Predict the structure.
Amino acid sequence: MLLNQFLLLSAVLFAIGVYGVLARRNGVLVLMSIELILNAVNINLVAFSALRETVGGEVFALFVIAVAAAEVGVGLAMVLLLYRNRRSIDLTEIDLMRG
Amino acid sequence: MTDLLTLAASAAGSGLPLGITEGGAWLLRNVWLIPLLPALSFVGILFFGKRLPKGGSELGIAFVGIAFVLALFTAVAWIDHRDDFHGEEVTRTVAVAEHHDEHGDEHHGGHGHPSLAVHNTVTWFQSNGVEFTVGTLVDGPAVMMLVVVTLVSLLVHVYSTDYVAGDRRYTHFFAFLSLFSASMLLLVVSENTLQLLVAWELVGVCSFALIGHWWEEKPNSDAALKAFLTNRVGDMGLLVGVTILFFTVGSALPGQFGSFSIAETNALANAGALSHTALLVASCCLMAAVMSKSGQFFLHTWLPDAMAGPTPVSALIHAATMVVAGVFMIARMYGVFFEGFSIGGSSINMMALVGGLTTLVGASLAFVQSDIKKVLAYSTISQLGYMVMALGVGAWTAAMFHLFTHAFFKACLFLGSGSAAHAVHSFDMKADMGGLRKEMPHTFRTFVIGSIALAGLPPLAGFWSKDEILVGTGGWGLFGGTGGNGAYTFMLVMGIATAALTAAYMTRCVYLTFFGEFRGHGHPHESGPRIVVPLWILAGLAIVAGFLNLPKGFPLVPDSLQERFGHFVEPVAGYFPTIAHGTPSWSLAIFSTLVVAAAIGVAYRYYFVKVEAASKACGKSLTELPNGPTTKYPLARRGHNLLVQKYYLDHLYTDVIAGGTKGPLADVAYSVNQNVIDGVVNAAGENAVKAGNLVYHRFDQLVVDGVVNTSGRASSGAGEELRKIQTGKVQGYAAILFAAATVLAGVFIVIV
């Protein structure tokens, strides 16, 4: 089985995700990037699961998907509220927690 | 000695027969239901009483009524059980059996079949190998008390619905009547001394609450406090006595620390397995409890004051039931007292002496009271003295029988006095009563029946029980009468003197209340049926209760009807001592009756003839002769004054003992306070200041503060540096997170 391709795909996706999280200023895009990171992980889990012929990794991937859905729900709700209150979803402007 | 007892003893080898069984009829084993019912009624009245149409009284009457019916069934079950039960006896294995066998032959002699008490316990808790149990011990005296308490309580409940009608704390009153009944019933079925103590304190609390029922008036709350505090003196005795017995029994039981069990304690005491000194000390302590609870001389002073409570309470608690708790306790622990005071010998012991003095003191004080309830209160003291004296001379059955008959006629008298007072709104015979026989025929008749029963004229109840006590003193040598446990001639004299005094003061009381002309205000009228019916029931019992224990050899009835009460009530068992029984004597009965009749005659001549004539002569209703002996003779006046001042006992307690101790005590306490305590405190304070200064300068300022300041500065500086990376920007944090993850990953790759 060609594991490397899957790992490479996942690494690329992860890198794109990290780039998106760190560099984009739009909140929605950051959330989308987080999804990319999670799915990169999912690809890894499923790939290794297939390699070892067990279902553990696939089950775990399903859990990740479920949790990701919940996380996106909460994240989008926060973005929506941010927009309502500040008319902007630029993450660089949101620094109320500065020490 | 019967085969059953022998069998049980031999079967258990060295076992000591306790005379108790775990078997028996269902009702005898589950007699705890009877105290439970009024306890439930107490809770019910407390929570729902105010919402019920009759303010909770119907609940009390219903539950006490059921308890009475159960008590009657229990009595029937006991009568069956007494002679016909052939179950297994519980024995205790201790190394004293030979001792028991030594006088095994005379033991229970002449009584035939033993009466096995029905014993039922559950473990309450265990501590350090000692098992604390709660349970019931049902035998003759317990069953007798169950019937008496529930019956009098029921009648008093019914009576109270009229007597305290419209009272502000009507519901509260019935709640406490129920709680009192529950506590007293618990006391009489108690299986161990600890449970007895709990019930004993509970009846004390109820007594306190009910005496102070009308606490808004100072004398009433004072009386309640006096009763409570006086009882406290004796309760200490009970506590100490119970503790001594606990350890004394423990010393005789192999591998056991102690025991509260009444049956075991008595059985071991009877078998001679316990040290006589310990028993004597324990008996003296328990006797203190009896003296306070049962109003024995010289702790009796609370009982007359307790008349501040409502009359039904006086009838129930301070005449018929609670005050006999002390007498009952002696009867319960009779093995201990019998050995402790050596009642079997004919030397005068503390119990007989206290009882004898109490009868005389009570009877003499009853003469000078003008409050009708106080006459009855002193009479109660006197009669309780009779019972204690009877127990002190070994006439156990006579004492129990007197308790039984006294409960009826004294409750009748108290309720009668309440009925009269209800009509004239006062208890003062001299100021507000007189001539009531015309207006209150039922109260008058029942009161006279009660008085005759109390005075002890045949054939009413009081005669039989009083006569048995006189026989029991054994001091009567004429015409073949012999006593049981030695010749207590001194007690016999006191008993006969008291009988004469009793007859005379009751004659005086009846005259002042019901004869002459009415001296109060308004128009008294007869009480309603809820008062009169209980009066008649009690009067009826005051007439017939005496026939339950006709003396042996009484000619008019068959043998099977003689001494029925004694047969069913007196235990014949390992936990009860062997007591000899006196032989009834006709000459003593006739002599005491003549004395009583003569005393009534003298009082009759003074009040009904002389005072009546003087009243006619001056046209108003007199209570004493204008030129009576107290005005003519200084000695009589001084004697009268001594009685009015109640032998100066109250002065002794409040002025001499309390007053005499509190001054010097305060002085000593003050000087100790100034010199010793203040010195210690001051020195300690000064040294503490010096030590404090040293510690402050050397240790606190340098070491502790140094550490604290350094750590503060360190965290402050670290915070200064770290706040720089706290930008508040999510992506900055994310960048740090990923960077850290990368570094960690690198570390793992390198290391792993």
Observations:
- Chain A has a mean pLDDT of 91.
- The helical segments of chain A are 3-23, 27-52, 56-86.
